[in-house]
Amino acid sequence: SYTDKVENTHLTSRDMGTNWNFVNGGIDIMYNINKNHHIYAKLAVSNREPMRSDMFGGDEHAFASNIVSKGLDSIGTTKPELVHDVELGWEGKGSIFKANVNLYYMHFKNELILSGELGSNGLPRHINADNSFRTGVEVAFDIEPVKGLHLVNATSYAYGKVNKNGYITSGGDTITLNAKHIFSPTWTLSQDIHYDTKVGDVAVTVGANY
Question: How much is the pTM?
């Protein structure tokens, strides 16, 4: 919950007050094909409240007179984010390998996205997107061709999109945001090679990561 206590200076608590109640949870279902291989499905729901600096679109420090000068009755309250996540995957292992393949789809309601502007508090401004989603595949494996030598790889491909209709900028322009997620590259790749051995009772690992 959040309430502004400074009456007559900032917006009143009637305008600023807000509270939320969240229940986050999920369920996993797994089927063992055999002792070395299994498939699974995951369903999850998660809520995330805005940070304090995003609670009111970056205007939580605004004076009532500033709001009136913008032609607004009060500042808008940023809504909490809700995401439904669905995942399907396979995990397996053999004599020289371990591997995992995971497919996922995340649907967001009121996702908090960067608008490209700064709020009156001087921080990057986040707004709620009307509709957004992310989907992709993640692949990871660890191969041990020679005892102690591990070739480890994690690769992912992701695609996502956000849409915000009728967004009014601080300059008063109405635009439609329709873009990919920021800081979410389509491809990511992690490669690691390391060798484990024992010298007496001491385990020694030499590795390289790119």
Answer: 0.76
